[in-house]
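Q: Here's a chain of 240 amino acids. Please give me its 3D structure as C-alpha cells.
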Amino acid sequence: MALFAIGDLHLSLASEKPMDVFGGGWEGYVDKIKLGFERVAPDDTVILCGDLSWGMTINESLADFRFIGELPGKKIILKGNHDYWFETVAKAKKFFEQNDIPNIEILNNNHFIYDEGAARVAICGTRGWLYDENMDGTHNGKIMAREVIRLEASLKSAPPDAGKICFFHYPPRFKNYVCADIIAVMEQYGVKRCWYGHIHGAAHRFAVTGTADGIEYNMVSADYLKFIPQRVCFSQTHML
C-alpha cells in the first residue's frame, strides 16, 4: 500500500474546456493521466490536490468523476479554485453514491490516517489561498481567514500521536510570496512536509520546492509531474 499525490487534472470530458488547446504537455492529457496512474495499485491511495473538473455543476462533472473513480487506487480529493462543481461535502458524497462512483473521499475540515510500516500519519489540508489571486484586495482577508480555520480544523481533528502532513491546492510559498497565515498553522502543529498544485506552464520555474524554514514543499501539478502521480515517501526524520 503506497501513497501518491497529484493535482490539477482539469478534466473536461463532457464540457467544452479541454486543456489540449494549451498545447505542449497538455496535448492528449487524458490519455497521459491514464498511463500515469498505471503505477498506482488498487490498494494505494492518491491525494488529488484540486482543480479536478471544469464542470460548472456537479452534474456537468459526472463524466469526469466516473473517469476518476475508474482510475486505480483510493482517491482523497480537495477543492481547487476552478472546482465550481463543489457546493458541500454532503452533496458531493450523495452524488458519488447515487452514481456508483467508488473510492473517492473528501478532505475538508477533517483528516485521514495513513499507515506505511512504522509511519502513521494524518493526511490534513485545505484549498489555501493566494492574496495575489484578487488584486483589488476585496474579500482577501475573509477568504484567507476561512482557509486558516479549515486548515486548523483539519489538523486539530488528527490524533496527537500521529505525524501530520498537509496537502493544498494553492502553494503556501511561490516565488517571493510567503503565506504567513497558512505557514504559521503548519508550524504550530509540527507539520514538516506539504504538497500543492495550481502552478502551470512557464510559472513552474517560480515554484518553491525543497525545504524552507523547516518545512519541505513539493509541487504536484499534473503538467509539472508529466501526469504521473508522485510517490509520497516517509522516513523518521520527515515525521518528527
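Q: Can you summarize the key feature?
A: Residues 131 and 147 are 12 Å apart (CA to CA).
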